[in-house]
Amino acid sequence: MALILRLSCAEDEMAPLSCPEYQEGFDGSCYEFVALPRSFLSGRGLCERGGGHLAFILNTDTQQFLQKHLQPEQDWWLGLAPASPNLTLDSAVAEGPLSWLDGSDVSYSNWVNDPDPGAGCGHILRSSGFQWEATSNCSQELHFICQFVQKNITIQKPIGEFGVIKCYSMNQSTDGANCKALYGSPLQIQVEVEAGTNVTYKLHSGEMLVANSSAVRGIIPHNITVGPEVEQHLGSGCHQLTLHASNGVSVWGVSTELQVCLLEPVEGLLGSVMAEEGECPDSDLYVSVSLDRGVPVQLLFQVSGANNSISETRDMQNSSMQVYNISTTIQGKHLRCSSVNKVTLLFLPVGEISSNYMLSVEVTVTDLNTKTRGSTTINTEVRPAKSGTPVQELQSAVACTVANLGQQGMLSGETLGQMFKSVSDILNKGSSEEKNDRMKLREEMLMNITEALENSSSSTPQKVQLTARAVAGLTKRGDELSPDAQLEASFLVANLSSSLLSMNVSEHGGEEEMVQAATPIVEAASNILDVSSNREVSDLLLKGMDNVQSALLNWKKVDEAPVIVNSSQITVFVNRVSTETIQMQSISNPISSSASFSFPPLGADVLSPDEPVDVRMLSFKQNPFSWSEENNITGTVGSVSLTRGNGSVIPIENLSEEIEIFLPRPEGGQANSTILYLGNYSTLMVDVPSPDVTLVLKIKPSKDITFQLFLGYKDYPNDKQYIAKTQMPHQSNTQEEKYTWVLSPKDLTGKVGVHYLVVRPIVEAGVKSVNATVTVTSIAAQCKYWNETLSTWSEDGCRVGPLTTLLATQCLCTHLTFFGNSFFVMPNLVDVSRTAELFGTFAQNPVVVCFIGSIFVAYVLVVIWARRKDIQDTAKVKVTLLEDNDPLAEYRYMLNISTGHRRGASTSSQVTVTLLGTEGESEPHHLTDPDKPVFERGAVDMFLLTTPFSLGELQSIRLWHDNSGGHPAWYINKVMVQDVETGQKWHFLCNSWLTIDMSECTLDKVFPVATEMDLKKFSNMFFMRTAKDFRDGHIWFSVISRPPTSTFTCVQRVSCCFSLLLCTMLTSIMFWGIPTDPSEQTMDLGHIEFTWQQLMIGVQSSIIMFPINLLIVSIFRNTRPRETKPGKTKAEVSKQRKTGRVTPSQPSSPQRDRELTPDTVIKDIKKIAQSLSKAMKSPIPRLELEMKSGPQTDINTLLSLVEDIIRQQNRPSGEFYTDASKKEGSLILSLGVTNLQETSMCGSPEKTGDGRQKRSTNSQYLYRQLRHVEKELSLLGPSRFPNPDSYCQAVQQVQGMKGLLESSSLAGDELAQSPGQAESSDGDSGSKKCCQDGLPWWFVFIGWILVVATSGVSGYFTMMYGLTYGKDRSISWLISMVVSFFQSLLIIQPLKVLGFAAFFALVLKKVDQEEYGDPKIEGALRNPDDPDVVWAVRRDSTRSFYQPPPPTDVERMRNNMIKEQKVFALIKEILTYMGFMWMLLLVAYGQRDPNAYFLIQHIRQSFSQGISDSMSHGNVFTWANTSLLSNLFGEYPGFITDGNSKLVGNARLRQVRVQKNSCRIARSMRQAVPDCHAPYSWEVEDMGSYGPGWNRSASENTSKTLRSPWQYQTQARLRAQPIWGSVVLYRGGGFVVDLGPDSQNASSTLQYLFDNTWLDMFTRAVFVEFTVYNANVNLFCIVTLMLETTAVGAFQFRSELQSVRLYQSTGGLHIFVMASEVIYFLFIFYYMYVQGKLMKQQKWAYFKTKWNLLELAIILLSWSALSVFIKRSLLGNRDMEYYHNHKDQFASFHETATADAVLGYLIAFLVLLATVKLWHLMRFNPKLHMITATLQRAWTDISGFILVITIMFLAYSMISNLMYGWKLYSYRTLLDSALTMVSLQLGIFNYDEVLDYNPVLGAFLIGSCIIFMTFVVLNLFISVILVAFTQEQMHHKPSEEEEIVDLMLMKFCSLFGIKYNKEESNSPKVIANHASVTKKEPSTKSSEMLSSQ
């Protein structure tokens, strides 16, 4: 052996040393310096697995060699360890001196200090000059040196044990212990050993060698293949094989056994279920299975039951028939097991809902003779029956089925239970219709079950369960259970429970079956108990529950888990325990909230120690003894009893220690807690509701203090007078009991009512007060038990415990029975006498007081505003007497004109009205009022219009205006006209715009009178009612929109709101926090739940609050205004009689503004004649002749004509102006029979017909007109007439006509009476009538007294409650109150108004006649006796200002208005664009930071140091080790360069490579050039995986655990993106290595890559990727440094840096930018709305306009930018989360950077498009318009030249690229060449580089390009445009837009007072502003009117 070693050494010395690239060779060994921190054993193992060992330093040369390659600042493990007999990896560290791992002594050493005796390993110590150090801490992680010896030195070690063995066949792997393969296919067995080299594997089957193979290293998995030929020798089936491994070093190898199964396809599988004759399989299933081929197999048995399924696997080793026993408790429901020859009836349960109601039914048939059996499975859908099935059909079906079952002898409880359960499901899901029939059907089915059980009782728990489920279903709806049905069901519960009690548990499946059977019984009892109050029913149910408990206790073992059955009302608990156990644990139900019991220690006299105890507990959620007279139990009722094994009860009574019982409440209410401040003596009022109640007071102090409690009755307690007293804290074990005071009825002495609790702190001497608070919670409760002897509830032996809370009552009792508890709701009380004390706590709790105070202050401010509004409304409430009423016209009409509520509904124009009736039409009248504005938005204006005679039935009304003023448009809502003389009303529903630019575009419109059907239309009634309710009925909204005519003033409404708010607050705080009664049933209305207690509290609050507030409102609303005194001053009279101007520009008329002449009298007589002519509706020929004769007409002739008419129409029994007289021709006037009495010729005018009654209304008004003429004649006198005889004759004629009228009248006084006098006389009688309606005026003082009283009392008590509750509780109440108030104000009450309006409009359909009150008329009708009437100005209706605007003027105004609208639209568009553009620029520049450029430049310059134009692989590594590392790891750890930018994660290197032989070599060069490597492209990119040095061999250096530098990683795994380089687009994947967190790791990694030639000829690009964050400028910078080559061997440097702001700044600018973003998208919404309207109007034509497409593009880009912004934010959050979780790895932000770049591009394009939009806004500029027109005119020629220019540019670009593209940078691509040609035309050109390359061709190219392109083509192109511009100037036609621009400039100039002079041109001038046209007319009206007479 020694000789062989020597020869091997000689051969090694002669052989040249060859080491891998990542290792260093020296002295026949290869050394690898592994810069990975590892422990000693780990590093040793890694070296030995690679075939080496930790380095040995045997001499000085080796020491010096290693020093050259070691890093002095690191520690390095050496192969030093204590001597060990067995040098293996698992050797323990032995004691002894250190030696080398091969056992040799340390002959050469370089120790720093001598090794300690306990040292276990050694290493080279850092910073010590490479000296050694021994240490005992071998687990520390250091770098290590591996030595691979080239000499044949073998470290002796045996082959290790077998590692993991796996088998592979048909792409499936199995465990080596049980290999499985498909027979006939190759089998590969993968083996490995834990140690050893040159290992030989052999596989034996007995003596036969199956396979053998060898492996160099045993630790590497090796495959042994077993081929199909060997498998044929072995045969199918399982075989036991032996695997042996050896290497010749050890005498014995290692072996292991393998089981190899060669399997065939499974064929012929048969199985059947075996069962006994006539038996249905229960728990055990016997299945026989046989198989033809394929054994061994694994059988899977699946057994499915009704609710679940199980599966079980068994092995089958041979193909013979085998029987398997499957034991399971999963069973299906046996629907029928019978030995009869047919099954006549079967009820199937409902299928599974999750499986679409699918039900699987297995039918098994057994032949009793041959014992053979056949089975089949039927799948069917069993759906629930429709709930809408009529009850009669169900009833008949049930009766028929029961009869059939009875005839067949199959009537039993389980059969009916199965059927009735399905029927009950239908009944329970149905509606409540046909309730009586449903009740009857339930009762019949219960009786059928009772009869069936009497004939055959249930014998198994399953049968009981089926029956009980039916009973539970039938009793589920208690409202459909009659008393007889309740009793019948109770009998069934008792019967079924007795049947269950008589069964043997062991014979019927065990305890679980009994529980399943008992559950529906308890559920049925719970259903019955929920509705029944019958004593007999209660007794039966309790008996049934006792039977259930006894049945569940049968055969139960001691101290097992309890059995608990839960239902909605009842909880059953049973258990069998030992005597010790019952005293150690609480008896309770952990699942539901039921009663719980805890027993004290019970002596041997009570419980026998040797005998187990049965515990029976029942818990009822409501009182089971509700039939008792004392039914005041409101909580849970519980009972517990202890029984012996035979069922006898163990008596528990008169115990020395009490049993603790907790009876919970179903729902806990909020505690009635009050906070008391102990700064002064604090008092609390407590109400005790009953004499036998126990009061529990729980005190919670804020500090640990001692205090006394005094309780007094009806008076405040003190040291001497009190009924109870205690001191706290009490002496107790628990904190809760220390501060709990329990007062029993005995302590309270049976007193009921208000008690006073005083809390007095106990302080030291000299201390006056304590700054502390206590929270007092009061609870009233009772503990009672059921006295079975007296059948009543009693309290003896039970008391309330101190642990009572609002959630449960603690009862302490000395005996066992039924226990119950009762809770009382105690109202919140406040102690009024402690006002000063409560207000003393204001500093601690100012919430409610400050809120009430702020309400009072707000009320005062609002009242001041309301008073001013009332004064303004008073001025509006009047009837305006129209100033242009004719003095001779005295027939009155009241006009109520309502202006709409729409925006812009009011008008500044002059409105004119004309009434049209069946008897004629009125003169046009101007509707003006000199004292108040008219026709305001939402206002109602009233005018008094007079006519000479009645117009009859009104048919229509005509309205128009002159379109003057600043806002001429008018929206009229409706008009109501009332005949003052008769009281008749006419309604006109207008709802129209009178304007030239909206709706019908008209200023003049006739509105017909509304019929009753029109008034009752839903739209009219609904909107009228809604408007009235909101304006007047809604108490809150009417404060702002009160009708001015209402007597309910604004101040009064504000006061009512104030009182109502305070009263609401008081009632709310009174009942705030009162706990609800849990015993009450909760009513459910959808998602709204409430109890009767809550409902009663609401009713009680309404009863307290509503009446007083209703009374106040009713008083204010119905009180009559105070009447004025009878006498009036002259000033008041003159104010009534004053007249104003007709138009705003007309001055007031003087009292005497004309001269009285005979012509004046003649004109008045003409007017009388004209009035008669209109009244007759047919002209009188003679009258017309006289009218045409002019002003020289003789007065006597006119009067004779009138007199002649009267005399001709004087007929018997006739009346003036009757319908019959209208048909008689030209003379229509008729008078009654009369005798004309002549008077003296020159007599004075006097009355001739006193005391007679007029017979016609028109006769009366004609009489008054004649009196007016008579008055004029008397004032004129005979001297003013040319002929005195004519004067006397005229007077006689007038008197004669008066006499005719007086003689035909019944009362001459009525003819002579003026309208004013008649009105006053009517007013006297009307005043008496008025006194009967409404309340006297002095009732308003009562209303104010009530307001002050309710407000003061409510505010005071609300503050008291707030101070009592404490700060936290007050804040909670206040928030709830405010939310509830606004919810009621803004939601509930408006909905109520709308609902009532819809109800009135749809159902009642009653026309609501608006009441306008009785406003005073400003200016009464002139009295005919008044001399001023004679001198008054007469109107002339023929003037132009009384006529509607002509159509030509309307059209002119409409055109001007349209132009003005366009001007304003243009201004609006420009202003909107300016705002939009401003916001866009803020958003755009808010996303960019100017510091980003400097950051990028700084980083680029820092890392580009040392970069040259051409770099080799070595230069790249030199740059990486110098510039890259020095800047990447700066002065401060974790920061780059100078420490301002934080490195986020690690940096990484990535390279992309191309495949070998990726291009084809020319045939002639293939011998000289061995291979070819193409430039980079995605097709030739290398994506393989390699070992170090790009070695593809399977062997790898296992000391290197990181294979990532040599393994391709995809783009998705690296979370990278493709990146553009200078040459090509690179994929985001590649070969990647992280540089690590510090410079040392990075340097080591670079050295490793350099040593292993990571960069070679196949490398095409290297990327350095990292991310930094600069907190100074709040920017992330994603850095990518690229070194790329085009396969020529030289690298070029390029950098890509992208700055991103992931964290928004927190400064003010950030908020400003965020606001800008929000406003910007508001603009986008506006533009979307505008474009949507355009799109709807223009449809497909919308897309033909380029500016529309521009707007659409801006909108789409905006939303795209928003989506990208959101995407960037999400990606940024994702990347930051990844960084925080993997700080030691590279964090890729490439996707975020890409999203940010896309966002920047989108915003940039948005700015571009928005700027281009400015061109569209400048379209009205004439110059710009001319440029646009020029381009359109020249487009045909321009397009041709553009084509020529394009061809020429393309030609010169291609030739320059072909000539210079391979030499000059400016022409390297076609695109670069094109850009250079463009630069040549602009004069930006490098001539020298072209001429230097080739002077001849260069000069030719440049010269020809300049001549052809610049001198010829471009000049011609410009000439075409200039010619088109000249033509456009010659033929330019100004457009309408230019006029609009001039109009806009005129507006602006007039606004700033600048004179605008428009330049004269050939174009027509802009039409003048319509305002100058329309406003001319009012200026001329006054002059025309004054000159009319």
Q: Please, could you describe this protein's structure?
A:
With 1989 residues, the protein is α+β, with helices and mostly antiparallel strands. It is 39% helix and 20% strand. Strands 26, 27, 29, 30, 32, 34, 37, 39, 40 and 43 form a 10-stranded antiparallel sheet that branches. Strands 1, 2, 3, 4, 7, 8 and 9 form a 7-stranded mixed sheet that branches. The protein has a 6-stranded mixed sheet with strand order 52-51-45-49-44-56. Helix 5 runs antiparallel to helix 6 (413-429), helix 22 packs antiparallel against helix 25 and helix 41 packs antiparallel against helix 44. The N terminus and C terminus are likely disordered.
